[in-house]
Amino acid sequence: MSLDLPPLGIGTAPLGGLFRDVSEQDAADTVAAAAAAGVTYFDTAPRYGHGQAEERLGRALPAVPDAVVSTKTGWLLRPGRTVVPDWSERGVRASLESSLDRLRRESVDILYLHDADDAADAVRATAYPAVRRLRDEGLVRAVGFGMNHSAPLAAYVAEYEPDVVLIAGRFSLLDHDALDTLLPLCARTGTAVVVGGVFNTGLLADPAPDAMFNYRPAPAEQLARARQCRAICAEYGVGLAAAAIQFPFLHPAVRSVVVGCRSAAEVRDNADAFRTPVPDELWVRLADAGFVPRGLLDVAAG
Fold it and tell me: What sequence ranges are listed for the domain NADP-dependent oxidoreductase (predicted)?
């Protein structure tokens, strides 16, 4: 893939009202803070707030002239905040055209087929040929798949060798699922990997009693594990968020990490965490405690 991906990006699901509302001003301030921090990659989707995240991003992007933008397709918005899957060429193209209108752009850098876990036949027949044509037409620069499950994503990489994939929540300090098949496969095919969900819906940002884990209240076992991880990081003067954001880069296939932000303060905190030095000794200590697969350290070293 010729596209240079910034290593840190902003996920815009919170700007669409994920879990709680975000004001127009906070949304604008979030994008402005990202630009001020040198963070220029923004990931969005029509399903984030039924188009709201794209609209808000589109209004704010003129302040970020060098922005790299990814959005998603495969689902069409309908009245009443309903969403329907449509993997036809017409549906894929209509979804992108609507996204471009909301984003106020003539093209985007990356177009992901979104949550196509159970649509393999339709992807093969219509959807993937459609996104490749959109790439050929210059409406997108790179194409791939974005989802929350490693196994179907690995199957798509094996069949199509796409430019890029986004895996959310399956490569974190608490979940190593993507390491089994997906990441080694992407390393072989040259498919760039973007990792989302590094906080597993917030638990690894702040393991508070009311923290969420994978979109649900955190189970006691996972809450205890996150607090153990935080305590180990503290021994080395490193915040838990810094280790969580930087962990995916231990694998060479990972090109970028996107973190959801709903305020300028969250952007600044995450940018600082991304830039915090993490000593090699901490990764070894986390491996001893089971938060980092031992073999991953060998991959990173080699």
Answer: 7-285
* Residue-number span of the structural domain to which 233 is assigned: 8-301
Name which of 215, 213, 204, 200 is nearest 169 in CA terms: 200
Predicted confidence (pLDDT) at residue 2 exceeds the cutoff of 90: no
The domain that holds 265 is classified in CATH as 3.20.20.100
**Given a cut of 70, is residue 302 above it in pLDDT?**
no
Task: Return d(Cα 46, Cα 100) in angstroms, integer.
Answer: 10
Q: HSE-up of 115 (CA within 13 Å, CB side)?
A: 11
Tell me which of 48, 112, 128, 156 is the catalytic residue: 48
- Count up the domains in the chain and report the number: 1
3 located within any domain: no
Q: How many CB atoms lie within 10 A of CB 212?
A: 16
Q: Give the angle 36-39-43 at the CA atoms, nearest 5°.
A: 130
Instruction: Give pTM, 2 decimals.
Output: 0.97
Q: Who's near 49: CB < 8 A, 6+ residues apart?
A: 13, 15, 16, 17, 18
Kindly state the DSSP code that residue 279 receives in the 8-state scheme.
Answer: -
48 is annotated as an active-site residue? yes
Q: How far apart are CA 204 and CA 253, in angstroms?
A: 22
